[in-house]
Amino acid sequence: MNSNNSIESFFNLDNVDEYKNIFNENKKIQIQNILKDEIAELLFKHSIMDKNWVLATGHDAIKFEKKINKQFEKANSIQIKKIQDKFKNDKFSYIFHRSMNNKIPSFLEFTLRKYMASKEFLDYLNSITDLNITTLNTLFMSKYKGGHFLSPHSDKGNGKIAFVISLTKKWRPEYGGILHFMNDDKTKIIESYVPEFNTLMLFEVPEEGIPHYVSHIVPYIKEERYSITGWFS
């Protein structure tokens, strides 16, 4: 990692006026090259080499997380089938792998959390969004593989704004894993975003939430969709 231990060595915090105008139009923006090239590559390498992934699944308000190893292989398989059935019955449900919740984080994870919670980064977000953000609520890394998905939900109560830093390389729309935004009654897609390496997706979460979902990844595909996700309030 760059020996210059500062937020400027980690993020590209520029073009504020341009981003502010875009965000004001529909309360969403996808910022290209948010991370310095070296940092983006380090986080990508961290993603593909991470040994701390857990299977994260859930339906309605019930969560299930187990380590991905032989000990929990049977329990995880049963849970995946259960969640697939919940999706068939139009219940909120999700399946993906989750990390960056370690009791002892790596130096890279520690630095990412420190800078994203810093006054400098919060000021940058506030300059773009005018949302008076003061706190990083949640941050985790996700990996979507074949068959993984996140069904329609609103993020209500999670924070004022959601973020997704994409660490996915050479992703194609036909693989799935697309972030779709929906109308209020969840009958139509109004905007879609394909994962793109080293981009920051920001979208406002109003008091009533905003309907969106991540579409199913094509089964048996070898490619994996990596991102860092969370909320500010």
Give a brief outline of the structure.
This protein is an alpha+beta fold and 233 residues long.
Low-confidence stretches: none
Proportion of β residues? 25-35%
Helical segment tally? 5
- What kind of sheet is the major sheet? 12 strands, antiparallel
The CATH class name reads Mainly Beta
Percent of residues in helices comes to: 25-40%
| Amino-to-carboxy terminus distance | 29 Å
What's the architecture, going by CATH? Sandwich
**How many domains make up the coordinates?**
1
Order of helices and strands: HEHEEHEHHEEEEEEEE
Mean pLDDT metric: 95
> Whole-number radius of gyration?
17 Å
Structural class: alpha+beta
Q: Quick one: how many beta strands?
A: 12
CATH superfamily: q2cbj1_9rhob like domain
The CATH topology? Jelly Rolls
Shape: globular
Structure description:
- The chain has 233 residues and is α+β, with helices and mostly antiparallel strands.
- The chain has a single domain, classed as q2cbj1_9rhob like domain (Jelly Rolls, Sandwich), CATH 2.60.120.620.
- It contains five helices and twelve strands.
- Strands 1, 2, 3, 4, 5, 6, 7, 8, 9, 10, 11 and 12 form a twelve-stranded antiparallel beta sheet that branches.
- The longest helix is centred in the middle third of the chain and has 16 residues, at 73-88.
- The chain is globular and about 50 Å long.
- The two termini are 29 Å apart.
- 30% of the residues are buried.
